[in-house]
């Protein structure tokens, strides 16, 4: 009998701790998303991203938001390099797009490092990323091929994720 009640206590406590962590991360996710125009997209994106959903404090959620944007920029960069090698006629444009995504990755990496040093600079690093999505849009926005359309869709998604990253850095200003 004693072992079953001990087992119950352990299960109860582990369940309770899970809810406490989810509650803490949800509070911080909601705080970030208050700074974002598309709040529903923000909440869904961050709660679906395990590092954000399991974060136990504000700084961890903010870093997770930046990491989410950074990982998507890396995915986008890899795709643009791949299609650049497959499309000789558009290679120059696609490589320019790849370079823009690489710059976004660098800026987001810098923003993450600045979070505990200079939050204004961290926020600025995120905002600079929009210059690079503008370069992509200007470079291939009028193209009609499927690869360009895919990159444009990825760029629009990148803008949404940058809005979340910006909201995250605004939270710590």
From TrEMBL:
The keyword Phosphoprotein does not apply. The keyword Signal applies. Keywords: Signal. InterPro entries: Invertase/methylesterase_inhib, Pectinesterase_inhib_dom. GO terms for molecular function: enzyme inhibitor activity. Transmembrane segments: none annotated. Gene3D superfamilies: Invertase/pectin methylesterase inhibitor family protein (1.20.140.40). Residues 24-168 form the Pectinesterase inhibitor domain. Residues 1-24 form the signal peptide. It comes from the Eukaryota. This is Pectinesterase inhibitor domain-containing protein.
